[in-house]
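Re-running the complex after MR caught last week's input typo. The corrected sequence lines follow. Everything else is unchanged.
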Amino acid sequence: MEQQDPETTPVRTIRVELGARAYDILIGPGLIGTAGLEIALRLKGRRMAIVSDENVAPLYLAPLVESLTAQGIEATPVILPAGEKTKSFEHLVPVVESIIGARIERNDAVIALGGGVIGDLAGFAAGIVRRGSRFIQIPTSLLAQVDSSVGGKTGINSPQGKNLVGVFHQPDLVLADTAALDSLTPREFRAGYAEVAKYGLIDRPEFFAWLEAHWREIFSGGEARIEAIAASCAAKAEVVVADERENGRRALLNLGHTFGHALEAATQYDSARLVHGEGVSIGMVLAHRFSARMNLAGIEEAERVERHLRAVGLPTRIAEIPGPALSAERLMEAIAQDKKVKSGQLTFILTHGIGRAFIADDVPGSEVLSFLTEQLRAGDAPGA
Amino acid sequence: MEQQDPETTPVRTIRVELGARAYDILIGPGLIGTAGLEIALRLKGRRMAIVSDENVAPLYLAPLVESLTAQGIEATPVILPAGEKTKSFEHLVPVVESIIGARIERNDAVIALGGGVIGDLAGFAAGIVRRGSRFIQIPTSLLAQVDSSVGGKTGINSPQGKNLVGVFHQPDLVLADTAALDSLTPREFRAGYAEVAKYGLIDRPEFFAWLEAHWREIFSGGEARIEAIAASCAAKAEVVVADERENGRRALLNLGHTFGHALEAATQYDSARLVHGEGVSIGMVLAHRFSARMNLAGIEEAERVERHLRAVGLPTRIAEIPGPALSAERLMEAIAQDKKVKSGQLTFILTHGIGRAFIADDVPGSEVLSFLTEQLRAGDAPGA
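Corrected-run output:
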């Protein structure tokens, strides 16, 4: 793996221009070690609660606390079990009480140190303590760095579904330490990469072409990786600035997610079978294939998408999911329960081709069901 | 009591001009019976969850449901125990799950039918279901009609203090049915009146003079009552529009509240001893007396405030609170724990006289302590 030298690799800065709530995303190796300085430059508070999990804390909590202490910032760690089950009221309530107990006031902050689960939970807690406390994201997974840490969506799951409870609460600062990605497993890295590719597929065809040419460098960890993360954050920031609360265009970020969520639900969120980014990978291929079936785009576009995702090692077909076979009916049921259902009508992100995604809010359920039945009947094998 | 005829008494409308989140406050007798119509005129949703409590539901749930059903709106009631203890995570979680279970989607709404506790809890639940659902306030107490239902502050209490957890979430509509006030006890009505008087004391000296002249008509329930409620809502709306998230001027609404909260905390929120509005009444007199002591205003201003609040039957002295005597030290402790403490400094709303309140963020704790000691030593008796 190519080594990055924190002394010479420049830190990229993406500004999210949200008026009075504008904030910086810094991207580069070694940012956990310089977090105290970056925070002290921007926030007046001298008390921070650090929310992390049992996997991430042993790796990065000590250097983060040290870097805060060096700036005179008092840090209170709140460590949770790792995993999706932590995104629940059961864990939210003690986190909220720990933050209040740490006497976090208006100028102080809550720091999320971890992946998407920790960012979503800690952001929600920050959003409701004293009707909104300052919040800093230090994402340690690729998925969190390019997607969930940017844009202010926070929340937990309810027994009825994922992310059904939460608030929009923008961070005051995002520190994406790219050196932290070296501790990810290849499977975790690939899952995050699905969201990177998504930005190309939505509206940046030239970025998708660049990914096709440079993905090996991104996976090996050099400058191209930082470049890809910065481009992803910039793409997401642009959408968030245009439509912070998802009244319109922001829904494009759900490309591949309606099918993806249905696959996650149908496999009971069992990460041994499927993780979010893998569901999105299969979902994006399905969205392109479904668009081709509806005569919205050529089938060669779907094939090109599939070729690239397969090249990086992501699953692209439902049949690749290990375990009991899934039925089209079970998937349709999960789609109907998805939160993006509007007055009974199905809303999908479809596409006219790579980089030409759009919001379709009148997709007939019957078409989706026959498409899924067809995909599953065809053996759903690559090249089928 | 003067009877209001819903057929002839006009409904007042106050518009809260918050841009894309602007909303109407309607004030008048009989609005619960016409709620369905008013809601159908403004919201597209056809599913509503009604959050209420065991005291209010027997009186007003049936006519509200009937009025919604007549407009084709399906209503799901969620009934909670009455009282401040309901403002907790313990009750919030099942309310959130009931709202999700009632399949409340983006265009549907959560309705709060009750006093301040129900409005704060239901508003918080609406604010976090699907990261913000539509919300309608139908306040049934005077306090809720003139204060808590307007302005978007929602929340629950934590073991460490009141209202420490919540969000800013503006309603889409407020229906203040003034006929509902006829079911309040005189003590409840008086407690709400303290907040009405507050608007005069903050920056409307002519309104305070009008209250001195007309309070008997307001208590007896005629046109003057509607007028006073409308003027209070207009005063609050103006402050909220200028400073929605309390970064500045909105703090003026806390006039009398720092002392008031301390009194509530020191009496363990025991409503047999003190309710919120009574604490605010005593607190407003203390704020005026303290301002006089600091040579900010003449003592005759404090005496005039006290005379009026005493005339309507509100307590104005600490010694009037039944039960064990309170100490200045216990009150100071409660003040220090109050959420309005900023970096150890005491923030108070002080005044240059009636209608001339201002934010003082550098009040020395030692001055407050000797003031309270003095007030308690002087026997704290009226005219002392």
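None of the earlier attempt is carried over here. The longest strand of chain B covers residues 47-53. The longest helix of chain B spans residues 223-242.
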